[in-house]
Amino acid sequence: MTPEELETLITARRSNLLIDASREIDSSIVERIVNTAQWAPNHKRTWPLRAAVISGDSRRVLGDTIADAMAAHGDDDIKVLKTRGKFMRSPIVIVVAAAKGDTSNETEENKYAVAAGVQNMLLMAESFGLAALWGSPAKGANDAITALCLMESTDHVMGIIYLGWPTQSVRIPERPGNQVTYLS
Ligand SMILES: Cc1cc2nc3c(=O)[nH]c(=O)nc-3n(C[C@H](O)[C@H](O)[C@H](O)COP(=O)(O)O)c2cc1C
User: Fold this and answer.
1) Which residue has the CA at smallest separation from atom 10 of ligand 1?
2) Fewer Cβ atoms within 10 Å of its own Cβ: the N or the C terminal residue of the chain?
3) DSSP H helical segments within 13-103, as ranges?
4) Helices within 38-140 (DSSP H only)
5) Is the separation of the CB atoms in 164 and 25 below 8 Å?
6) At 82, is the pLDDT very low, low, confident or very high (cuts 50, 70, 90)?
7) Mutational pocket test of ligand 1: of 136, 171, 172, the residue with most ligand atoms within 8 Å of the beta carbon
8) What residues contact 39, with CB distance under 8 A and at least 6 apart?
9) Element of type H or E holding 7
């Protein structure tokens, strides 16, 4: 791959939820995408990535699980109701979490490592022509999500990634100029 090809891949990736929810993704593709997350750097080789690949009816279970936690935290009814069905919008949903470290610094750096892993996944998805979107988990739902995904309760859910074949492309959000200091 040339630098230009890599640059093209990186800049072509968009957050896109315009997905054909009824079109399956071959499981070998999903597996390859998830595996790329483990190739991100991680400090002290703590290997903090935790992931759950969710499809079929389990997407609704995920929605209900998060919605129930939101309701218990007093979120408004409309938001709670919307959450119940929201994960049906893509054929695959990937919950990504970072393991707790032995120190607060390690826990923080584990999150950086997992964020880098998510970007690997998003780029790999782009290389297959798939649409993906990194969604934030609802506040207060961490324990409910980790329990459903058979993770440790101390794992921190970093995001819920929607994955599927695109029905449309999305507008490219403008990037501000980089704030980079060059010292020589
Ligand atoms: C940590 C994180 C959380 C995000 N959460 C959401 C979200 O909850 N909903 C959403 O629509 N987009 C979410 N995004 C995607 C951003 O909105 C998106 O990256 C941004 O608008 C830039 O667009 P681009 O990814 O196409 O370059 C999230 C991105 C990150 C890095």
Assistant:
1) 135
2) C
3) 27-37, 58-72, 77-86
4) 58-72, 77-86, 104-127
5) yes
6) very high
7) 136
8) 117, 120
9) helix 3-12
Percent of the chain predicted with pLDDT > 70:
100
In Å, how far from its chain's centre is CA 180? 27
Distance CA 151, CA 32 (A): 21
pLDDT > 90 fraction of the chain, expressed in percent and rounded? 99
Measured in residues, the chain has a length of 184
- For tokens 């929607």, name the residue: 162
Instruction: Compute the CA torsion angle 30, 35, 40, 43 (nearest 10 deg).
Output: 130
Give the contacts of 127 (CB within 8 A, at least 6 positions apart). 9
| Closest residue CA from atom 18 of ligand 1 | 15
Domain spanning 15-164, CATH architecture: 3-Layer(aba) Sandwich (3.40)
Task: Give the 3-state secondary structure of residue 159.
Answer: strand
d(CA 103, CA 123): 31
Give the per-residue pLDDT at 140: 95
Q: How far is the CA of 133 from the centre of ligand 1 (A)?
A: 7
Write down the pTM of the prediction: 0.97
Question: Ligand 1 centre and the CA of 28: distance in Å?
Answer: 26
